[in-house]
Inverse folding.
């Protein structure tokens, strides 16, 4: 009997090892999951995170709570998750400044995080086109006219949600490609920048598509171009910078879930599987469209490759243009 028992135990251990720890997978989640958002409540990132958290909670039959940890351009919350216990109970929902923030903030390693190797990618949830909009009184209605005004010597400026943001990178990249100098006016978030371009306090702004759709649809703002390589199905009438001749200027926005490095692979697979089902739900797709976002999904590596590509491509542009958040 002892020999039989020992053999069964040995077999059980072998099966567990081969299957990646099913005992852990079967018990997860046994307590509430915290999803950290490194930005204040009320913005697009926070709202989308809460949408996914609610659906994930229903599927896992476990509480999924959002914890906002804003500060230092998102690096405060990102660093917190990077140092968290890798047990699947602390996750990060983040937009793409996750990749570039440490570069533009010039953080010391002790107060930063390892962008490429410090996290486990779970899923790339959605993409959001960046759009350049103009106030109708700006004096131009398209990119060629804007560039012409800029080259005439007339002072021209653009608003962004903040220094070092993807919008800032897109604008400065366009400045270089068009050989113009349109002045950056950084704001503290998308909302204030949109408010001021609608009011005419600043002639143009780089923002996310959803933040201005109500104004572009009513003529209160003119959409000039989007930063994606291809036109967005959410706004097919807006041309890309690529098709306008600026073939190297491609900057978009994305968001996704990460876990601390070392989180068990079976937990990552479980979360990825459930979130892939969530991004396909009609009500989720419809809600994402309100924010100007399109669902993505796929394997964890989709997010991993996007993060790595942005680190290389955007990092090169940031260094060449000397973009900082200071």
């Amino acid at each position: 009997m002892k020999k039989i028992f020992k053999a069964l135990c040995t077999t059980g251990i072998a099966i567990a090892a081969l299957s990646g720890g099913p005992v852990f997978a079967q018990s997860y989640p046994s307590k509430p999951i915290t999803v950290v958002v490194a930005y204040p409540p009320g913005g697009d990132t926070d709202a989308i995170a809460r949408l996914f958290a609610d659906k994930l909670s229903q599927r896992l039959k476990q509480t999924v709570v959002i914890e906002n940890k804003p500060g230092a351009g998102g690096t405060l919350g990102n660093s917190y998750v990077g140092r968290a216990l890798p047990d699947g109970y602390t996750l990060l929902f983040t937009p793409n400044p996750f990749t570039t923030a440490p570069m533009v903030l010039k953080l010391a390693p002790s107060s930063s995080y390892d962008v490429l190797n410090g996290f486990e990618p779970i899923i790339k949830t959605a993409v959001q086109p960046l759009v350049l909009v103009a106030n109708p009184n700006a004096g131009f209605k398209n990119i060629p006219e804007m560039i012409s005004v800029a080259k005439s010597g007339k002072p021209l400026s653009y608003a962004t949600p903040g220094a070092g943001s993807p919008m800032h990178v897109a604008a400065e990249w366009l400045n270089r490609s068009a050989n113009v100098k349109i002045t950056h006016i950084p704001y503290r978030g998308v909302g204030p920048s949109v408010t001021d371009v609608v009011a005419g306090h600043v002639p143009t702004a780089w923002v996310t598509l959803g933040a201005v759709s109500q104004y572009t649809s009513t003529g209160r703002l003119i959409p000039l171009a989007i930063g994606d390589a291809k036109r967005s199905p959410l706004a097919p009438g807006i041309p890309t910078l690529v098709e306008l001749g600026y073939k190297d200027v491609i900057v978009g926005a994305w968001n996704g879930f990460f876990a601390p490095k070392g989180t068990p692979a079976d937990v990552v697979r479980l979360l990825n599987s459930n979130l892939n089902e969530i991004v396909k739900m009609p009500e989720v797709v419809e809600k994402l469209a309100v924010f100007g976002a399109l669902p993505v999904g796929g394997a964890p590596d989709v997010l991993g490759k996007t993060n790595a590509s942005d680190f290389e491509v955007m990092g090169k542009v940031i260094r060449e243009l000397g973009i900082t958040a200071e």
